[in-house]
Every structure is written in structure tokens, then in C-alpha cells.
Amino acid sequence: MTFERRDFMRAAAGAITATVTLAGAPALAQDDPLQVALGDIASVESLNLLIAMERAGERGVPMEMTFFNSEDVAVQAVLSGEADIGVGAPYAFIQNSDAPIRMFYRMSTLLFFPVVNSEVYSGWEDLDGQEVTVHSRGSGTEALMRLMEEVHGIEYSNISYVPGSEVRAGAMLQGTINASIVDAANFRLLKEEGGDKFQRLPLEGVNATDEALYANTDVLEARAEDMQVFVEELLRTWQEIEENPEIVGELREQYGLLQDLPEDVAAEAVPYYTEAVENGVYPTDGGEPADVGDDIAFLAAAGQVTGDPAEIDPMDYWSFDLLEAAKASN
């Protein structure tokens, strides 16, 4: 997906395309390690996933993560068999290619902050006939703003594209734009620098997947037992973080994860997960069929997929067998 990432959390912990073997994973137990492809660099955003992988390793399911330079390359690695599991939400890829890959665990939901200069606008209705600024064409930021046009019965005069949440926040502070959409870090910056001058607009009814885990259907079948262990640990880890975000810092130390992160970035881990939990970024149920319709509606608004959400078959994009089995085993 082309959704803008939270740049302030994206400090590298290793070279792109480097492979990380998790400390808790026994060397080549009964099967080869499950290979996870991440189309990004390692950051504190990856910690919950890395913790779940460590825990799967402790239960006899070795896992490794390989970093690729884009989600497109990662999904090709999964399709070719170079990797077993991918990170992303490849709805468009599946729809356009009919590829035999399916999502099986919803890791996070999309979180952005539509914000206006309150000296100029006070609500969505004020943006009718006005210009708004988003990240890029076809991005999640554009999709959210397009959806709000429909929800509130308004029409923008123009949508401008300015890459970088921090760039858009800076432009708002300078007064060169008055309506945009930013990430959590830059909304916090706007409030710190501008106080009540900047107002967040509500996003009622928006439920869209940011990242999920997916795999080739052959892997889902051939490694079903190992994959179920992994999903059980994902559910466990997500629930523990929901109950106490500070556990992320404790488990990072316990497992020695992302040791190369700069200290100031590592220090953001607990605040990041605390804020994410407060905003419902990490669902604890792993996803359900109803979420697929919401995702299709959202992506259709961004022009990334086509189709009526009410008519799509969730099984064309997802497999819930592992998730249901994992929940039943608890």
C-alpha cells in the first residue's frame, strides 16, 4: 500500500535486505525457519511483530526476518517462495494479479489526523469549496480526505500533494496551508507549537487496515501448525501490549531486539505504543471478515481497488482459518 509511514519511528536497525535471525529461535528445529519479508527498515514499529516472532521461536518455530526496500519487492518475494510471510495489505496486488496469497492477521489500523487552522475553519463543512493538502496521489491520506467528502457531503476545490507529514505540519505552522492531514507525531508538534490554533477534525466510521500479515496459500496449508503457533503468539503479544504498553520496553531488553537503534529513538518505543494503544491502532482480535469490506471501501476511495464492498467475498483476500484455530486453542 502507498500509505505514508510515521517517519519519526523509522530509524534503521540494519541494512536493507539484511536478514535477522531471532535470538529465541532454535537453529533449524523440525522445519526450516519461517521467513518474514518486511518491505521497510526495522524500527520500533516492528517491535511487537519481532516479539511475537521471538516467542514463536521459543515454542519451536524458528523465524527470520528479511528487510526489502519496498512492499512491492516483499510481496514478490512471498509470491516466488523466497519468503513465507509478508507484511503489508496487498489488496490491489491480489485483485489485479489473482495471486494465491491471502492475509491472515490484521496487525494495525490506519491512524491519521485531519487538521485545520481554527482561525480559518472550524469543521468539515467549512472545507466545502476549499483546498486541502495530502501526502500523495493514491495515498491513504488522500483516501481519508476523499471519504470525508462523501461522508459530509462536501467537495474540495482542489487537493494538493505535499509528501512528508513533517513538511505539511511545517507549512501549517508557517501559515501557507490551512487544511491538511498529518501523523500522530506531527499533530502533537502542531499542538505544542500552535496550541488551540490547530484543530483535529473527527473521522467517524473510518476503519482501514494499515498492515496485515499475508502468505502464499501453499505455505498456509503446508506449515499450518507452525503458522498457528505464530498467530497464537501474535494474539498474546497484542493483548499484553493493550493491557500494558510498557511491556514493549521490557521485552525489547529481554530479547535484545533492535540493539542498534539510537538511544533517543529507542526511548520513543513505550510512548509510541502507549499512544497507539490509546488510539486503537493495534486491534487485539486479529481481524474479521467485516474488516475486509471496510478495507475495500477505503481503498476504492483512493482508487487502488475496484468493486462494491457489499458484494466482495472476504475469502478472495483473507484466510481466517489460522486465526480461528489460534483463538480456539486459548
Task: Provide a concise account of the structure shown.
Keywords: Signal. With 330 residues, this protein is of the alpha/beta class.
Structural account:
The protein is an alpha/beta fold and 330 residues long. It has 2 domains: 7-110 and 208-329, Periplasmic binding protein-like II (D-Maltodextrin-Binding Protein, domain 2); 113-200, D-Maltodextrin-Binding Protein, domain 2 (3-Layer(aba) Sandwich), CATH 3.40.190. The protein is 41% helix and 16% strand. It contains 13 helices and 11 strands. The strands form 3 sheets. It has a 6-stranded mixed beta sheet, sandwiched between helices. Strand 2, helix 1 and strand 3 form a beta-alpha-beta unit. Helix 1 (47-58) packs across helix 8 (224-243) and helix 4 (140-152) packs across helix 12. The protein starts with 18 loop residues before the first strand and ends with a helix.
CATH superfamily of the largest domain: Periplasmic binding protein-like II
Instruction: Tell me the structural class.
Output: alpha/beta
What general outline do the C-alpha atoms trace? globular
What percentage of residues falls in helices of 4 or more residues?
A: 40-55%
The percent range for strand residues is 15-25%
The SSE string, one letter per element, is EEHEHEHEEEHEHEHEEHHHHHHH
What oligomeric assembly is this protein in?
single chain
Main location: periplasm
Subcellular location: Periplasm
Keywords: Signal
InterPro entries: SsuA/THI5, TAT_signal
